[in-house]
Structures are given as structure tokens and as C-alpha cells.
Amino acid sequence: MAELFEMLRDAAPVMLTGAGYTVIFAMAAMVGGLAIGFPVAVMRMSTLAIVRWPASLYVSMMRGTPLLVQIFVIYYGLPSIGIEFDPVTAGVLALSLNSGAYLSESLRGAIQSISQGQWRASFSLGLGYWQTLHHIVMPQALRVAVPSMSNTLISLIKDTSLVSVITVTELMLATKEVIATTFQPLPLYIAAAVIYWCLSLAFEALQRKAERRLNRAH
């Protein structure tokens, strides 16, 4: 038992460094996903089919194919047509594109939950579509969207483990590197699972805090 604790203590710096990279990748992918998801959500609500269909196709494709396959397409497939990314960029791009599809649906549902009466009242006051969306609708929609958006972020924390297949350093790859030198997979994989769990709990706490803050006026 003492040897086990000593091994975990020696492995902790490497694994915690990997956990730090995991959080960075997840946050970067969340920002990228929001940058993609918001315009896609707006496109999905358009009355113009030529605007709505490409967004619907993107969402369907990202949600209907495994993230691992998307990573392989971006990192291993695109170089065959002259588009090449380094592992970190490929990993963040794949995570952003994947999360963007889910975030777009969260935002679209939240925006559509705001009554049409508020849109009409805003238009009657002389505000345009984008002004109404920015000043009236989105502040209310964000309150509705926070739980599902937080769930996406927590999923991203776990999904970052998949980018280890393209040699991106994060928690899972760091764990595999330690296992390669210690030959003790079970305790190290359990330790990695505990770290993922702790990260998820931390973001769940942030989610509850954000919900309380946004619900103060309600």
C-alpha cells in the first residue's frame, strides 16, 4: 500500500499538469463553440431556406457522427487535400465544431423560449432585429441556456480525453505516459477518473453560482 501511495505521489505532478491542459482545451473549445454556435442558432431560426438549411446540415452532421471520427478527419484526413493543422489546433478545432452544434441548439431553444410579444413590443418601439436580439432577448435567453451550456462544458472536460489519440498532451495522455513507466494501469486510471470527476464537480459549482446570479431578478 505504501508503494502505491508513493507511486501516485510521484505521478501527481505529471497528471495534474495534464489536467491543467485539459481545462485549457475545454475552455478554448467552449469559446470556439460559442463563436460557432450563436450564428448557427440565428441561421437555424431564419425564414430563408438558403440560410437555414446549411446550418441544419452542420448541426445534423456534427451531432450524428462520433467526435473521434471528426478528430481523425481534421487531423489525418484534411492533409490529403492540402489543409494541415498541428495536433493542438486540430484538437481544439474538432472540439469547437462539435460543441458548437450542441451549443447552437441550446441557444436556439433559449431564444425561442422568449415570447413573441417581447419581439413585437421591441419592434413597435423602433428597435431592429439585431437590437432586439442583443438588448432584449439574449439577456433573458442566457438565463434559460446556462444549465444546458454548462452541461456542454462538463462534457468537453471529458471529451478532451479523445484528443490524446493525436498526441495532444492532456490528462489522459499524461496518465498513459506514467503507466508506460510504472506498469500500474488500474490505480492510475482510477486516479485519472477521480481528477475528471473533481473537475466536473468544480464546474457544476460554477454553474449553480451562475444560475443563482442570473435568477436574482426573477
Give structural notes.
With 218 residues, the protein is mostly helical. It has helices at residues 2-44, 49-64, 67-77, 87-112, 116-124, 129-159, 171-182, 185-214. Helix 6 packs antiparallel against helix 8 (185-214). The radius of gyration is 21 Å and the shape is flat.
Order of helices and strands: HHHHHHHH
- Helix tally? 8
Gyration radius, to the nearest Å? 21 Å
The best one-word shape is flat
Number of strands: 0
Helix content: over 70%
- Poorly predicted runs are none
Mean pLDDT across every amino acid position: 90
Distance between the termini: 53 Å
Organism: Massilia soli
Domain ABC transmembrane type-1: 19-207
Family: Belongs to the binding-protein-dependent transport system permease family. HisMQ subfamily.
Keywords: Amino-acid transport, Cell membrane, Membrane, Transmembrane, Transmembrane helix, Transport
Key terms:
single chain; 218 residues; flat; amino-acid transport; ArtM/GltK/GlnP/TcyL/YhdX-like
Quickly describe the structure:
The protein has helices spanning 2-44, 49-64, 67-77, 87-112, 116-124, 129-159, 171-182, 185-214. With 218 residues, it is mostly helical.
Secondary-structure blueprint:
Elements: H1 2-44, H2 49-64, H3 67-77, H4 87-112, H5 116-124, H6 129-159, H7 171-182, H8 185-214
Helix pairs in contact: 1-2, 1-4, 1-6, 1-7, 1-8, 2-4, 3-4, 4-6, 5-6, 6-8, 7-8
